[in-house]
Design a protein that fits this description.
The protein has 133 residues and is α+β, with helices and mostly antiparallel strands. The radius of gyration is 17 Å and the shape is globular.
């Protein structure tokens, strides 16, 4: 188990303009198996819709990058990688996302190399998470 006071186990490389930069994701909690994240959890860091949306977008982008990376790493079998991501907003409502990568993105008969899309399926928990006080 990983939590926010530890360094995330993976660094991502992003391209900004013409330069590549290292980006280290910083979700609040995650479950790691064999050094690779399988579940991410992010709790809204501020109050309000704008803060919630920014945190949620960052969580989903990090999860999408991990899915792509998980699918290019060697595996014992021909299986697809998926990751769970859970976001808890400022109203304490949790939304669970399952992210995976499609097998193909369309017709490749013209020789173009289509990148495979990352798909997110979500389930919104409508009951607020409370301490019961």
């Amino acid at each position: 188990m990983f939590h926010s006071d530890k360094v995330f186990p993976i660094d991502l490389m992003i391209k900004v303009s013409s330069q590549q930069r290292k980006y280290t994701p910083d979700c609040d909690f995650c479950v790691v198996a064999n050094g690779f994240p399988l579940l991410l959890l992010e709790v809204a860091s501020g109050f309000g819709t704008l803060s919630d949306e920014a945190d949620k977008r960052r969580l989903l982008l990090e999860a999408a990058c991990i899915v792509r990376l998980g699918n290019v790493l060697p595996k014992k079998e021909n299986q697809e990688f998926l990751i769970k991501a859970i976001f808890v907003d400022s109203e304490f409502v949790a939304t669970e996302y399952t992210l995976y990568q499609r097998d193909t993105d369309g017709d490749d008969s013209d020789g173009d190399d289509f990148p495979r899309s990352v798909i997110a399926i979500y389930c919104r928990m409508t009951k607020r998470l409370t301490t019961g006080r």
